[in-house]
TrEMBL record:
Name of the top EC class for this enzyme: oxidoreductase
Protein's organism: Paenibacillus thermoaerophilus
Region (Disordered): 146-179
N-terminal signal peptide: none
Protein name, UniProt field: 2-dehydropantoate 2-reductase
Amino acid sequence: MADKDLPAVTVIGAGSVGLLLAGDLAAAGARTTIVARTRAQAEAIGRYGIAVREADGSRRVSHPASTWADETPARGGSADWVVLCVKQPDLDDRICGIALGHAGAAGRILAVQNGIGHEEWLAERIERSRLRVAVTTIGARRTGAAGVDRTGRGMTSIGRADDNGAGAGRARQAGVAAPDESDERFMRLLRAAGWSCEWTDDLRRLLWDKLTVNAIINPLTALLRVPNGRLASSPDTKRLMRELYGEIERLRVAEGVPAGPDMWERVLEVCRRTAANRSSMLQDVERGRPTELDWITGSLLRAAERRGVAMPANRTVYLLLKAGLSTGTEVER
Ligand code: KPL
């Protein structure tokens, strides 16, 4: 039974993170709706519920309401929170319209994307006071239309879209970076649903940290067709990682978000911790789906061009992947 005292949440996007979040929120008793891309997936979720499988093999099924993108209210929704779990390539005006259609008049919109730039794009379309951005290291792998494996607990950090690092100090002084009651309620719900989460007023650094990890692991695993762990376990691939990292480190200095002293070690640690995982970009390549390359390496290259920083290794990896993707190279399994 859904609990009326908990915030009502709509999750947009029924990929791995969206399914896991909607499944966990519904299991925690929140009024939860998930918006799938297709009618077929929405019907599968409606019929079978979302099955979440844990690392120990146990399985739990919960039953959020489900709908699909073309069946969305134009306005007048009642969600307290709408969580955008679509990938950057799918974040467009139509998705914004769907989010606003589901949100109540003061409903918050929370963006959960990899890369950078989406927070600024969204802030041009949604009032900043309602917009929140999350950086998550949760691990999930979709196993079917309504099934998902939890592959890592991770941390989800939430902050305001306008808290872009440079302004963080000022925002803190002015007291605007703190979470309000609605933010606190939502984070309590997330914790009750088993998600570790925290408020951050250093969103820009976290976005860059996640981007650093993704810009090294995702393109290399997609190019070499290997699981994450293989990158750090071979001296040759590790050297390649280090080349990409050195360039990103220099770009981060030019951007005013320098990498912390432990950043390189953290990239290696993610490889080890997720050793058996196939990165999301490799999975996209294997399934012939659009990848986030332009929003991950592409966004780095655009920033590098603006700052006049050379990134030959990242550029070569980008071009090689683009060429492979456009020729639809057969994938080894
Ligand atoms: O976030 C990831 C992804 O696959 O997109 C990593 C951290 C590389 C884990 O697979």
